[in-house]
Automatic annotation (TrEMBL):
This is Amidase. The lineage of its organism: Bacteria, Pseudomonadati, Pseudomonadota, Betaproteobacteria, Burkholderiales. Residues 17-362 form the Amidase domain. GO terms for molecular function: catalytic activity. It comes from Paraburkholderia ginsengisoli. InterPro entries: Amidase, Amidase_CS, Amidase_dom, AS_sf. PROSITE patterns: AMIDASES (PS00571). Pfam families: Amidase.
Length: 374
């Protein structure tokens, strides 16, 4: 069972939850699923989100597997094993929170925590056919989470139902209003972001707005591609600062070795340009949200590729083209399973809201969940 690096039973009699292996659990090593960190001593105390879950009576059932060092989109890990995609075992589970998404999809846990620096909750959620939320940047504590410093990374929950996802957010967030996060009633205005995705997925997004009874209009979101590139520059620099020293260990997976050697070459000029784009794109998203309740667009531009294709060298960086930009801007974004006409696989519908209005994003997601299940 590759969904867990380690199984355990900690906490109370409440819902079961898996914890990504970048999040500290007292008494257990946080290895980020890397051979290079295998000798890390056990954490001395729980990450704040874990302490909150334990206090709330949740039952922690395991350290969830992941793409090594949370630096990859496939979820393939030749050291700890690759979690199974619950929708199709021949396809990638997505990264980097692969084990968290798979554990929820396979019903090994009621919920899971992951981290999202460049789409690493929403991407696996879409691949595995479950719900995944990247909260507003800074809304959920990252104390006790690796890497220790990040201007992009967010801790967030996976679940199979919005009610469980909301319960998890309530447990890990001091001021999360569960009443405001209940299913959205009344008028709902959405902006459908014009995005480069397959015809089938784009059609499914438009259909979802219709069946959910939302007033929808096409929205151009300036700077989406530039924000993707800028997000890559920032994650490369910050991951290099956190983990670049591990290249010298000779213990990294081949893909991580290549990526970290490239990441260290990120220049100060690239970062300065990225920060300017961050400001511009954040303003563009804020402006687009002025006239609608939320923005919607595909989570991923296409269905996940197969494990064989990924192992054969197929590029996966474009998987994050529609999710990474919202790490740069810091807006809350949630992926809801999206039925595709003529396919047994579900894609992902991404719902993006105003900063700090995670509850509204959840409420509108619950409306889409109900409509798409009807």
């Amino acid at each position: 069972m590759n969904e867990f690096i380690q199984t355990l039973s900690l906490g109370g009699p409440g819902p079961s939850i898996a914890i990504k292996d970048t999040i500290d659990i007292a008494g257990y090593a946080t290895t980020a699923a890397s051979r290079a960190l295998a000798d890390t001593p056990p954490a001395q105390q729980h990450a704040e989100v874990v302490a909150r879950l334990v206090m709330a009576g949740w039952r922690i059932v395991g350290k969830a597997n992941m793409h090594e060092l949370a630096f990859g989109m496939t979820g393939i890990n030749d050291y700890t094993g690759t979690p199974q995609n619950p929708q199709d075992a021949t396809r990638i589970p997505g990264g980097s929170s692969s084990g968290s998404a798979a554990a929820v999809g396979l019903k090994l846990a009621d919920a899971a925590l992951g981290t999202d620096t460049g789409g690493s909750i929403r991407g696996p959620a879409a691949c595995c056919g479950v719900l995944g939320l990247k909260p507003t940047f800074g809304r959920v504590s990252r104390h006790g989470v690796a890497p220790r410093e990040s201007s992009l990374d967010c801790v967030g929950p996976f679940a199979r139902e919005m009610s469980m996802l909301v319960a998890a957010m309530h447990a890990i967030t001091a001021d999360f209003d569960t009443h405001a996060a209940r299913a959205w009633l009344g008028a709902c205005k959405v902006g459908i972001v014009q995005a480069d995705a397959t015809r089938e997925i784009s059609a499914a997004v438009a259909r979802a707005a219709d069946v959910a009874g939302c007033t929808a209009h096409a929205t151009q979101l300036a700077g989406l591609a530039a924000a993707f590139d800028a997000g890559l520059a920032v994650i490369n620099a910050e991951t290099s600062r956190a983990f670049g020293h591990l290249v010298e260990s000779g213990k990294l997976g081949a893909d991580l070795d290549v990526r970290l050697r490239a990441a260290v070459k990120t220049t100060g000029a690239q970062l300065d340009a990225a920060e300017q784009i961050r400001r511009q794109f954040t303003a563009a998203v804020n402006q687009a949200l002025d006239s609608v309740d939320v923005l919607i667009l595909p989570t991923l531009p296409a269905l996940p590729i197969t494990l064989d294709e990924a192992r054969g060298g197929a590029s996966v960086i474009a998987m994050s083209s529609l999710i990474r930009p919202f790490n740069l801007s810091g807006h809350p974004a949630l992926s809801v399973p999206l039925p595709i006409a003529g396919s047994s696989l579900k894609a992902g519908l991404q719902i993006v809201g105003r900063k700090g209005q995670d509850e509204q994003v959840c409420a509108i997601a619950a409306r889409f969940e109900a409509a798409l299940a009807a």
